[in-house]
Amino acid sequence: MTTYGLTPGLMDRLRGDHARIAGVVREFMEQSDAAVSILDWQRLSELIEFLDYYADQVHHPLEDRLFDQLVDRGLTPIERHLVFKNLREHQEIRAMTEVLANQIQLAKKGGAITRDEFVETAAEYVNLQRRHMNFEDSRLFPLLEAQINDKDWGVLSGVLHEEEGLTRENHK
Asked: What does each C-alpha distance from 65 to 36, 116, 144 come to in angstroms?
């Protein structure tokens, strides 16, 4: 397999994103731990809002664009399976983020959610996030680095800059 060397800046960004997301996930776990006497619903809400916005609306769509570039490469059936598995996990993470956000909002309003139910869902979410990032770091990022060439990066970079410009325009 030829190594093309995907733009180091992008891979640094993705790895940096994982470090930031892991830190927020770690705090989310600590805040939602069953041993904590009183859950700080406001802080949990802030953490899940970050994960919803940054991980689900910024980071994962960027990865999806990159992983989409891999699908039509000369990947082995196992490699293709890994890419599609990862894309499905992004959807699963987004769905779990939404469930947790709804549970937190319900709890903040004094709604009927048991602490045990929330703690169990939060633990599943934390485990999914950790497994997912480890999988990408160990299996998919090396595959990206081996498959995406400079020409691909140039095309993708232009599309990403255009999308970021449109996003900024929408937030003005």
From this structure: 39, 37, 11
Amino acid found at 105: Q
Q: Is 62 in contact with 160 (CB distance < 8 Å)? A: yes
| CA dist list (Å): 120 to 4, 60, 99 | 43, 24, 12
Q: Report the pLDDT value the prediction gives residue 146, as an integer from 0 to 100.
A: 84
152 token code pair: 């691909």
| Domain segments of the chain as ranges | 8-170
Domain at 8-170, CATH class: mainly alpha
Query: What is the model's pTM?
Result: 0.83
Q: List, for residues 73-103, the tens digit of each pLDDT value.
A: 778 899 999 999 999 999 999 999 999 999 9
